[in-house]
Design goal:
Layout (H helix, E strand, L loop, with lengths): L4 H8 L2 H10 L5 H10 L3 H18 L2 H15 L3 H28 L6 H9 L3 H8 L1
């Protein structure tokens, strides 16, 4: 996933807490809010969502996604819409890679779920159906 576990453990100091936060990451609304704001041309909203996503991914040690979210945050801060649209593609690729890794881990760990399950639930407006799996 591109995470530096030792750094995350030093920051959060509790393996159970790290596991809990990582398993809940697919349910975090920041990425979806970012995509909605970008598609609606709401730059300030997109900036806030990208900034939030950057902070979460930095805390969890998701280096690649943190880097792409940071670049997107700066493009939005500077009003570089064309660059932001391009960078959103990088954020999306990094986000999917991390979420897919988490979901594979959950499947191996007996929790279950696939990226398609999560996306189908989100698309149908049933975000709360997946939340019980991560708690």
């Amino acid at each position: 996933m591109g995470a530096d576990y030792a750094e995350v453990l030093e920051r959060l100091r509790d393996e159970r807490l790290i596991r809990r936060y990582v398993l809940r990451f697919p349910d975090d609304p920041s990425y979806d809010a970012l995509c909605r704001a970008m598609s609606g041309g709401r730059v300030e909203e997109a900036f806030l969502a990208a900034h939030t996503l950057k902070g979460i991914t930095q805390s969890l040690g998701f280096g690649g996604l943190c880097t792409s979210a940071s670049a997107l945050t700066e493009a939005l801060r500077n009003g570089a819409r064309a660059e932001a649209d391009r960078l959103l593609q990088s954020v999306t690729a990094d986000y999917r890679r991390i979420v897919d890794s988490i979901l594979r881990f959950q499947g191996e760990d007996g929790v279950g779920g696939t990226a398609e399950d999560i996306q189908a639930a989100r698309n149908s407006g049933m975000d709360n159906t997946s939340q019980s799996r991560w708690t």
